[in-house]
Write the structure tokens for this entry.
Amino acid sequence: MTIAKTFLTALKKQWLAERTRCQSCGMPLIYDAHRRTGQPYCSYCHDGAGFVSDMRLADMRARVDELLRRRRASALVRFYMYWRLATLRRWRTRRESGPG
């Protein structure tokens, strides 16, 4: 396989992962073993009826950062996810609807 083809394959996989992230924690849904088709949230955040735990954006950021630290993710990846979480549907909706 050529370098260009390898790069394009990796880029396509990353694009798919970015496009299909859990709209609560940011996990790429392709890695969720219990994913429900058509659901924008992973099975760890949403059980089909509601969110598994009621938390604030700051709580989710701390949870994701701890997970990434345990997996030895770089500071750049952790910073990206810190920023990215605020752009996800669950947190945009709360911010637009006011406090709480």
